[in-house]
Amino acid sequence: MAAIRQSTSLLKSLIGSQYRNYATSPSGNRLVTLIPGDGIGPEISAAVQKIFQVAEVPIDWEVVDVTPVRGPDGKFGIPQAAIDSVNRNEVGLKGPLMTPVGKGHRSLNLALRKEFNLYANVRPCKSIEGFKTLYDDVDVVTIRENTEGEYSGIEHEIVDGVVQSI
User: Fold this and answer.
1) Which H or E run contains 22?
2) DSSP H helical segments within 16-136, as ranges?
């Protein structure tokens, strides 16, 4: 139970940080953009919303749809309303988004990373007192770059069936 209180306290402190002037809802809570995603995304997003609700984290969700829209250039991209929501709220949570297989499909995950200049995926991992795991006293942060190399979306077919990712 102490570990749950510790996690709840951490969530509340992160969302309620006084260092940034985040958008607030009419209730006075922080307003957070939620992109539920697709596939298993909506189920995962709903579970996260429930966890935040039970933990009494003072946020309200602004749910946005990122179903691709065709731009003037004929390419599909992120709806402007979703981009505006993230820019306005400055805080967002995205569920898993599937990338279609085949030529001509741009990854929405990559499009979001590039739109918001999300160079690094930072994943902290820390042991929580009271939860027994395989390893004790874990305190590590993994940082993976998101916009270059194999995550840049720059690919070309060298010969039939052989694709190179730059």
Assistant:
1) none
2) 41-54, 80-89, 108-115
Letter for the amino acid at 158? I
Residue for token digits 């590590």? 140
**Residue 5's Cα: distance from chain center in Å?**
24
Instruction: Look at residue 165 in the predicted model and tell me its pLDDT.
Output: 58
List C-alpha distances in Å: 7 to 45, 131, 137, 141. 18, 12, 16, 17
The predicted model scores a pTM of 0.68
CA atoms within 13 Å, Cβ hemisphere of 86: 19
Task: Output 58 or 99, whichever has higher pLDDT.
Answer: 58
* Cross-strand partners of 140: 125
| Element of type H or E holding 21 | none
Question: In DSSP terms, which residues pair with 144 in a beta bridge?
Answer: 121
Q: What was the pLDDT predicted at 158?
A: 73
